[in-house]
Every structure is written in C-alpha cells, then in structure tokens.
Amino acid sequence: MKKFVKVSLWVIGVLALFLVTAVFIIDKKADTIAQKMVDDFLSEHPLPHHEVTVEAVNVNLPARAVSLHELKIYPDETVSLQSDNLENPDLLNAQIDEIEIRGVKIWKFFRKKIIDVGKITIENPCFIFTVSDKTIKGKNKLSNRYIQQKNLNIDSSEVEKINMVIVDKLKINNGSLKILKHAESKPAFEVKEYSVFIKKAKFDPDKIDDLETAIYFKETHLLAKGGTIQTPDGLYTIYTGMLAVSYADASIIFDTLRIIPNYSKVEFGRAVGKQTDRFAIGIDKLEVLDVNWDEMITNDKNMIRYVAIHQPCLSIFRDQNMPFDTTNFPKLPQDAIKELKSFLKIDSVRVINGYLEYEELMKRAEKPGKVVLSQLNATCYSITNDTAFINNNGSIIVKGDFKLYGKAPAQIEIKLPLNEKNTDFILTGSVKDADMRIFNPYTEHTAMVVIDSGNIKQLQFEAFAANDTASGTMRLLYDDLKITVLKSEKKEDILRKNKFLSFVGNAAVRDQNPPKGKPERIAEMFFERNKNKALFNYMIKTLVTGFIATIGPTDRHIRNEVYGGSTHQKKERKQFQKEQKQEKSHTKRKQKKEGRHQKRNERRK
Predict the structure, then answer these.
(1) Is the pLDDT of residue 71 over 70?
(2) Which candidate, 421, 463, 426, places its Cα nearest to that of 335?
(3) 331 DSSP 8-state letter
(4) What is the value of pTM for the model shown?
(5) What is each CA distance from 198 to 193, 204, 219, 540, 572, in whole angstroms?
C-alpha cells in the first residue's frame, strides 16, 4: 500500500512538473503570438495621420492576463501642425507606460461573444491633444474623434461580432492631459495629474453612435490635481486644486478654484477695447451634492439638490476711462437661465463667509472708489428653467446677510420672477447702526466727497423694478451728517479740501432725519434703467436715488403721508384733476350746444 502511494505521488509530481513546464513554454510562446496579433491589428486598422507602436506584449495564462508596455501614439511624418488640408485637424501625442488586463473570461467570449474582463489597469497615461478652434469651442468632441469606429478604421461587421464589453474594475493611475491650439505653446486646458476608478462598466457596441447611452457604469471616482483652463477669449485662466467626482456619492467637489485675469486692472480694459467688468474669483471649496448622474448622462438634464460655495472671494474692477459699449445688452439672470438649451434645476446654492469687493475708476481719477461686503452668507433658491415651475409663477429667491466694509450689519432679499415679463426684480433690505464714514473709500474717489461724521440708526428699503424703470421707498434715519467737498491738485497729484463747496454742501444737505420737530422723511426711489449695464448696476443706482432724496435739500422725492405721495406725484395729481375739470366743462358745453340745436329743430317743425 505504501509503495502504491509513493508511486501515485511520483506520477502526480511528474504530471504537475510537465504541466508547469508546458504552461511555461506556451506562456513564452504566447508573448510572441500576442505581439504579432497586436502588430497585425495596428497595421490593418491605422489611426488616420498617426503612428501607433507597442514595445512589448506579455501574456500570463494562469492569471488569464495580458499587458501592453510602452504604448505610443504620435502624428506621422507627413503631418504638419500648420496644415489646413487635413481631414482630421485634431492630432494626438500619447504615451502609456503599461496597460494590464486581468481575469479575461475566454469561454464566455467564444460562447456568447461577450468580452468580460475582471480588471484593467492603465499606468501613467500622458495625452497631449493639438486641436482646432472649432474643437475648443465645443463644435467637435475629442471622445467621438478617437473612440468612434470610423476614426479607427474598424469595419462595422467586426464590431457586430461583439455583443457586450464588461469590465468589473477599471483603474487609471497618475495620468496627465493637455489640450493645445495649433501653433500655440500655452495649453488651453491642462490636468497635471488625475486618477480614475470605475466599477461595473458595460459597453454596448450596438449603440456606438451614441456614446452617452452605449456606456454604463455602477460606480466611478475621478481625482484630479492641478487643472488649468484658458478661456476662449484669452482674458482669464481657471485653476483647480483637487477635483473629486463620485458617481456613487453623486457629488462633485473642488478643493480649490481660482479664476484669475491674464491682464492687470489697467491693461484689462485696453485688451478688451471697451468698458467692462474685470473679475477675479477665489473659492476655497465648492461642493455640488446630490447630482442626478443618470438624468444628466441619458437625458441632458442637470438636476442638483445643493451647491455650497465656501469662502468665495470676488473682486470686480471697472475702468470708466475706456469707451462705453452701447452695443452690449447684458441679460437679466432669470432670462439667461430660461434661455439655456439644457434643462437646469438646482434646488439651492449656499454662499458661506464670502467677500465681495467692487472698484470703479472714474474718468481722469487717480484711484478707484471701493465698495466692500464681507462676512457674506446667502442662499439662492430655485435656479431652474423648468417650464412647469415657471408657468406656476415661480421665482428665484436670494436671501442673505453681510457687513458693509466689515462693520455695518445688513440684510437683503432679492426676488427674480421667472414668468412676469414686466418685473425685473423685487429688492428689500435693511442696515442698522452704521458709521457713515465707512462709505468714504467709495465717495472720496467717485463723488469727491468725504463724510466727516454721520450715524445711520436704521435703513429700510423696498424696490420694484419693471423693464424700464425701478421705484420704491427708502426709510433712512441718521444724524450728525457733515461732509467735505474735495478738489484735485493736479500739480501735486493729491486731493485737497474745497472750503467754499464744503460750506455750500453742508448747507445743502440735511444733517439728520427726522429733522428737528418734523416727521420722518420717507424717500421715493426712482431710476431709469440703463440696459447696457447689468442687474447689479440697476439695483445699486436705484438705492442711490433714495439716499440722495433723503439727504437732499428739496422735498421733490419725499413721500407726503397726508396725500400719500411725493411732491412730483402731487403735481401729477393736480394736472390730472385739472384735465378732468376741463373734460367736464367741455362735456357740459357740448351738451348745451346739442340742446340748443334740438330746440331749434323742434321750432322749425
């Protein structure tokens, strides 16, 4: 018995050694066979205007794995980047250190024509696209150019042999990407490092003409660092720190986001050639949560529950020394949203601890006037172009609080109706306990006025804007207002006090509201819209009319509580009453004349 066991073990050992040796030999031969298959495929299916090479192919039969090393794609020698005669002007330079495919289910392919792979790992892929202006503007898609079968020269009958492609896990490690315009060295788009993980991916070759429906995945994660985008007009560069996209978590998160102008404040207007706003934006963290990926991918519907913008810093500069553009008619926010081609629905956007700085350089001024809003916390509700919501008289609502120049607490609410053609916005707000000298950074360089003293006890306003004009009321209670009017000393390039105009100015403005022994002055705001300027200008200029009416020497725009209107409204009322009396008199004269004619006709009969 013991001898039988020994013989059996010896036979099994010999067989095992033979099998290992056979697999080893076949495995070695498999590399050569696989290399030839890859070379034949690349030769029979060339990528237009490009050379494709693979340095080595390794096959591991026990692990059912194959790996490709040093895959390179580059334009062939006949291609000139300056040529305008290419059928496909978009060119690709790519290098991938290794592509490893593991867990290939061979029998499933032979029985059902399904490619089923356990894991694909792509190491250090580096892609550099050189593209035309049309591609940059989105008229062509790189994914379609290099993935669709017509560009790879693959016959449709060959694709039909495959019923499905299934990949359990796909990993891309340490990738990089650049997109360059022809004849330009600075990238229009760049990601210095990215990694991708996709789980349970499926590809249906029958739907290859529509890649959005042809590809399905259960879970995906994208992690990118050091992204750079040049805007098409060349005015701004967009930087991203860490970008994380998760299909499973339904989220998009930017760790850092910066929009930086490519020109200084003075040079920006010259580069544009006209008066415009220069923006500089920095965001510490941007969270887009509860993204409906399925609706976005399959139906082109952007449905998001919540967006959080952490510590945004927005700096706006406008140079009024540049020519004003009378051909520009910026759209109101609600109109721009309604005209979007894709469906949009964002339930709420939250701004957390924001900072806003607006600077305006007046003509021939040396320094700009500045307005600062800090500690800004606001929420915007119902950003959508959903027709059902619009037809139900829905509105975009913005509610927020902040501090003027970091000192005066303020609250504001803006309503932007989506379905009312005659209402641009409804604006309400309040400010409490403010030292009026905080406004000097703006008034000194825009109105040549310095506020020496003044205290705002309470400010409340309500404005209603139509297509052409805005009106409303402002209740501004203050005391101890004193000002200094400045004059410019051109030789010394400084501002000095103008004693005469300062005396006249202090005599003209009202130093307090309510005046001593008199009721409060409630101002009526009124402003005619400049349609060449944006919504922000419309709102601010409307509020300024309330300030001027309150502190000004006349009562023309002050509400009269007895008659329920301001002086100019009373004049209109008197004119209306006069016209009514004239119409009554005219009617009586006409009736008397008709009566006389009637009596004359009766006598003749």
Answers:
(1) yes
(2) 421
(3) P
(4) 0.77
(5) 17, 16, 6, 49, 71
